[in-house]
Recover the amino acids of this structure.
């Protein structure tokens, strides 16, 4: 193994490899004088053609710009057209269509949830209104309003102030409360 390592590091073996590479490069780049002149001539012709094509292209671009100006097509108009075309491409893409469908479905589901929620809330308010506590409260409010009306009608000649009417309504409501409590307790006794 040591002899191989020395062989790789040996200056003579490196020189042989370099000479082989140089000879390969020289073989690939070996061009005769005739071929060289022919290649240079072809290169010159190509450069002239490129220059001519650039001039023709420049002339055509100028003509293009002039014709668009005559038609009234401005850069802004072209930009709008490009934007419209791009927007159309986006709308016709499958990703856009899938997103639109997904959002539509989500909107429909959200609407259904809110509708159901509204129905549940309405039902709960209906249940609450039919509850005994609410009916008792409603009766007290009705009695109070009736007492206020009776007090006001009964005292038409005096025309008392708002405070007097309010205190008399409170007094009338306080008098009715024990009788309501007695009827509630008697209902409770019947149930038990």
């Amino acid at each position: 193994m040591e002899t191989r390592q020395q062989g790789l590091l040996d200056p003579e073996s490196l020189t042989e490899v370099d000479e082989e590479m140089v000879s390969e490069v020289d073989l690939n780049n070996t061009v005769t004088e005739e071929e060289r002149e022919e290649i240079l001539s072809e290169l010159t012709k190509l450069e002239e053609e490129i220059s001519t094509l650039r001039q023709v292209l420049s002339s055509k671009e100028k003509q293009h710009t002039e014709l668009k100006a005559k038609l009234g097509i401005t850069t802004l108009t072209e930009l709008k057209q490009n934007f419209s075309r791009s927007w159309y491409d986006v709308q016709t893409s499958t990703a856009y269509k899938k997103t639109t469908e997904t959002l539509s479905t989500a909107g429909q589901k959200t609407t259904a949830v809110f509708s159901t929620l509204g129905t549940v809330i309405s039902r709960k308010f209906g249940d609450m209104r039919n509850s005994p506590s609410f009916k008792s409260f409603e009766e007290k409010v009705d009695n109070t309003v009736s007492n206020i009306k009776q007090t006001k009608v009964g005292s038409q000649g005096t025309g008392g102030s708002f405070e007097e009417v309010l205190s008399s309504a409170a007094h009338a409501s306080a008098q009715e409360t024990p009788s309501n409590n007695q009827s509630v307790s008697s209902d409770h006794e019947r149930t038990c």
In short: Residues 132-191 form one domain. The radius of gyration is 52 Å. The chain has seven helices and no strands.
